[in-house]
Amino acid sequence: MVKLKIEHSFNQSFELILLSFFILLNLSCSPDDDEDDSEPPRDYLEQSLDDDQRLIQYLKSHYYNYEDFSDISNHEKEIIIDTILSENINLKSLFDFAVSSTVTLASSEGELIEHKLYHVIVKDGIRIDDKPSIADSVYLSYKGKLLDGNVFDKKENPVWFDTANVIRGFRYGLQYFSPGNFIQRENGTIEFKQFGRGLIFMPSGLGYFNSAQTNIPTYSPLIFEVSVFTINRADHDNDGVLSIDEDPNNDGNPYNDDTDEDSIINMYDEDDDGDGILTKDELDGDDPDNLPDDSNNDGIPDYLDKNT
């Protein structure tokens, strides 16, 4: 159980926690952190394939202490990764537990490159239908490591992360982990229970690629151990549309949608269609029915239609 000392009432304190991610973003996972030691990029496709081979080799040659987590109530045990040797050859490897997914990104030349991301669920959180999206904020603790085991960053006490401001591997990896529940003790302590825990394995193309960071060499695949306590559904521009739903092209990625082509993506744009009327004022107008208005019945909601 993770306990946090809270000095005020539960409602007041948790509201402060929910709001704190706006000002307490940890820059250690930001793609702009320490980017002054970069080199000309290698070929993105070749590096992606090379990183994937390195990750697969690592996953097949290492295991974690999965037997320690067989008890459904055991969420606090340390996750330990070690090498498979002749004396423990019968243990399941990380590869036996890993689930792969593909994240497609455009290279600097505009070529679409597929990157393989792997995750391992060590313990599922109880809120299995409430996983974070790639645009939400997540309250978590973590440890970041290189494939050689060196730890480059960790947060043992939970912090808020806005997934819009972290490296892509972290953003896309967190969506597979379920948060837990929490209670407040009489002494003002908040206790989280049955939260999701696991591992994320990412290629350098979803991390820092050719930009060296503090204790992270260029072209380094990364490992993150994460514990996901709770989440906050984000509406970055406070326009009434959740950030993950600011996706009119329906490709699952709100980071490439800019309806009015003003160089501000919809999830940060208070006026998505650029017609001078704020999205929140066009969304569901005079006769609210919790559905976006389409006053000219052209199939385009008013807040995305500059002609209405």
Descriptive overview:
- By secondary structure, the chain is an alpha+beta fold.
- The protein folds into two domains: 2-232, Roll (Chitinase A, domain 3); 235-308, no CATH class.
- It has five helices and 13 strands.
- The protein has helices spanning 10-20, 44-61, 94-97, 168-174, 279-282; strands at 2-5, 37-38, 62-64, 81-83, 99-106, 112-123, 137-146, 151-162, 181-184, 189-193, 196-202, 211-212, 222-232.
- The strands form four sheets. Strands 5-6-11-13-7-8 form a six-stranded antiparallel sheet, with helices on both faces.
- Residues 1-28 and 30-35 have low confidence and may be disordered.
SSE layout:
Elements: E1 2-5, H1 10-20, E2 37-38, H2 44-61, E3 62-64, E4 81-83, H3 94-97, E5 99-106, E6 112-123, E7 137-146, E8 151-162, H4 168-174, E9 181-184, E10 189-193, E11 196-202, E12 211-212, E13 222-232, H5 279-282
Antiparallel strand pairs: 1-10, 2-12, 3-4, 5-6, 6-11, 7-8, 7-13, 9-10, 11-13
The number of helical runs is: 5
- Named at the architecture level, the CATH assignment of the largest domain is Roll
Count of individual domains: 2
Query: How do the strands line up in the largest sheet?
Result: 5-6-11-13-7-8
Q: Using DSSP, what is the number of strands?
A: 13
Shape: globular
Q: If you average the pLDDT, what whole number results?
A: 85
Through-space gap between termini:
52 Å
CATH class of the largest domain: Alpha Beta
CATH topology of the largest domain: Chitinase A, domain 3
Regions with pLDDT < 50 over 5+ consecutive residues? Answer: 1-28, 30-35
CA radius of gyration: 21 Å
H/E topology pattern: EHEHEEHEEEEHEEEEEH
Helix percent band: 10-25%
Largest sheet: 6 strands, antiparallel
